[in-house]
Amino acid sequence: MSILFAASEIFPYAKTGGLADVGHALPEALRNEGERVYSIMPLYNQIDRDKFNIVYAGLTFDYWLAGVRHQFDVFHKKDSQDELFIYNPILCDRLGLYYDDFGDFGDNALRFGLFSYSILEVMIRMKLDIHAIHVNDWQTALVPMLIKTRYKLDIKTVLTIHNLAYQGVFGKDVMDQLELDWDTCFKFNGLEYYDAVNFLKAGIYFSDKVTTVSSTYAQEIQTASFGNGLDETLRINSYKLKGIVNGISTEVFNPKKDEYIEKNFSFKSYKGKKKNKELLCEELGLVGDNKPLFIFIGRFTSQKGVDLILDAMELFASYEANFVILGSGEDSYNNAFRSLIDRYKNIKIRIGYDEGFGRKLYASADYLLMPSIFEPCGLNQMICMQYGVLPIVAKTGGLKDTVIDFTDINNLEELSLGVGVTFDEHNLFWFNHAIAKALSLYANKDKFEDISKHNMQIDNSWKNSAHEYINLYKK
Ligand code: ADP
């Protein structure tokens, strides 16, 4: 099969979250299974073309929309020509991908509308013989609608929802700006959303298949509490909705050869993990590398349970344990954490996005805190297992599907799930209860190490999920 995978961010070229990781790892896993996969993303101006060997593909074209001429240049990787990039100044010449310090860019509808048109134009102009187009999140969700209403092509489409909280909702003026047809696009249950337009809703309506990134989340989003206003649309379209859990790239997240970490290790050379912890504690001035080390890595946004972390800081400070928090996000949270930077001896806080420091934390930590309010899939809990970390997770979405509580297991050997600590109710009492359980487990060194080594051997790769996607494309 020949698949076109379109996304607004793909690791390592541009990344703001899990979508970029999936954009890298899923096409790679599909290629390993023998499928032909083209990937396509915007060539944002912050992408270093020289570093990544991205060269002009010899195609430039104009596309007229509402009387305005837009120019697109197509690029590809020099050594892997199936990796395509589109450059257009409105889409790409920005300081951020979707927003800057002043908030969301005001022309995101136009930017990603242009991207969606150009995906189809590139496919047609380069004569790519595509069986299915796989689009991701609201930024590319107009593609299935354009295929059915404007281009009228016989190509099947799959939309993956990575996070229903982001939908691409804009004023109706974008209908004319993007030359979208009122009758075929806006009416019925398509693009229209409370008298505005909703890109993701159009994607759900017009795609042949809709997936989301875990089975539990696929169920949750059909309910009013998790549906973000689209639960009814999802219930109506549930016949084509499927949950397929994400994997992670076991090449990228591999403690045996991770170049960011001080000492490479595996479950067989477990001492290396302890050495990483020792070095990290030394570097950060944390006392006692024999104490459990808890980390949090993630976007500072309410979804990730950041309020719970902030509420728990005094408790953290009272424990015989060390904590490191790495993240950045909404200003109010950045400021709240910034004000606590020097307050506690056993809690270190770093604000910013730092891939290398993140890896060092995974390599050194015993526990990862992930008290998300909702979590479509979550990658951190799977990444951390590779490095022998036990995740402490709220029982929601993909976290529920990928982590089992250590008190719920009988036989570690036969278990194919990762092991950690889970808690049901999202409040400080149960979060603290989970941490207390983690501390007591840590006191039993042998048991803790057995679980840590077990987690390192869990298959969180894309292999199984890639097969599920292949079956879906075949359908
Ligand atoms: P999201 O909802 O942000 O997509 P995921 O758990 O799906 O959350 O993916 C988050 C990814 O981003 C992981 O690879 C995680 O390690 C990484 N990450 C998040 N914040 C940071 C940060 N501040 N520094 C380094 N890596 C980070």
UniProtKB/TrEMBL annotation:
Keywords, ordered alphabetically: Glycogen biosynthesis, Glycosyltransferase, Transferase
Enzyme Commission identifier(s): 2.4.1.21
Annotated Glycosyl transferase family domain residues: 289-439
ATP-binding in keyword set: no
InterPro entries in alphabetical order: Glyco_trans_1 (IPR001296), GS/SS (IPR011835), Starch_synth_cat_dom (IPR013534)
Functional pathway: Glycan biosynthesis; glycogen biosynthesis
Reactions the enzyme catalyzes: [(1->4)-alpha-D-glucosyl](n) + ADP-alpha-D-glucose = [(1->4)-alpha-D-glucosyl](n+1) + ADP + H(+)
Family: Belongs to the glycosyltransferase 1 family. Bacterial/plant glycogen synthase subfamily.
PANTHER family: ALPHA AMYLASE DOMAIN-CONTAINING PROTEIN, GRANULE-BOUND STARCH SYNTHASE 1, CHLOROPLASTIC/AMYLOPLASTIC
HAMAP family (UniProt xref): Glycogen_synth
Function (record text): Synthesizes alpha-1,4-glucan chains using ADP-glucose.
Protein name per the record: Glycogen synthase
Gene behind the chain: glgA
